[in-house]
């Protein structure tokens, strides 16, 4: 079986392709917020879901659907262990970075929360 050709990033090329013109790396339908993860190993992007990206490789590390509505902001807690997320339905959620699980959530009663932050 012939080996699949790869682009400079190591991603497989479509059958018959000899090179890639551009890339779809780190592209989303829409970005509501972006935060840098501790030790600069990656970034977290939110929109329709939470995506963790490895900055060194440009590869998506993980993707998690958090809310039925669009996420509008993300803040990384100072210790780097949690994310504070807000959404278009008025929810604020705190998520554990290591496990990507929800630790707590608050319904604010507002139509849309544009941003939430730790203080």
Commentary on this structure:
With 119 residues, the protein is mainly beta. The chain has strands spanning 33-36, 42-46, 50-54, 60-64, 71-76, 82-87, 91-96, 101-107. The strands form 2 sheets. Strands 1-2-3-4 form a 4-stranded antiparallel β-sheet, with no helix packed on it. Strand 6 (82-87) and strand 7 form a beta hairpin. The mean pLDDT is 85.
Tags for this entry?
single chain; 119 residues; mainly beta; Thrombin, subunit H; 4-stranded antiparallel β-sheet
Kindly state the percentage of residues in helix.
Answer: under 10%
| Bulk shape | elongated
CATH class category of the domain at 33-107: Mainly Beta
- Mean of the pLDDT scores? 85
Beta-strand portion reads: 35-45%
Tell me the radius of gyration. Answer: 17 Å
- CATH architecture of the domain at 33-107, by name, is Beta Barrel
- Total strands: 8
- Helices, by number, come to 0
Strand order of the largest sheet: 1-2-3-4
Structural class computed from helices and strand pairing: mainly beta
Largest sheet: 4 strands, antiparallel
CATH topology of the domain at 33-107: Thrombin, subunit H
**Alpha-carbon distance between the termini?**
57 Å
What is the N-to-C succession of helices and strands?
EEEEEEEE
Poorly predicted parts:
none
């Amino acid at each position: 079986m012939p080996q699949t050709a790869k682009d400079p990033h190591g991603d497989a090329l479509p059958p018959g392709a000899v090179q890639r013109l551009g890339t779809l790396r780190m592209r989303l339908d829409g970005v509501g917020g972006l935060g840098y993860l501790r030790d600069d190993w990656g970034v977290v992007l939110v929109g329709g879901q939470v995506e963790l990206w490895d900055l060194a490789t440009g590869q998506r590390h993980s993707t998690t659907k958090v809310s039925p509505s669009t996420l509008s902001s993300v803040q990384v807690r100072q210790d780097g262990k949690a994310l504070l997320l807000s959404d278009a339905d008025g929810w604020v959620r705190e998520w554990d970075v290591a496990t990507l699980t929800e630790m707590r959530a608050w319904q604010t009663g507002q139509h849309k929360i544009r941003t939430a932050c730790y203080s």
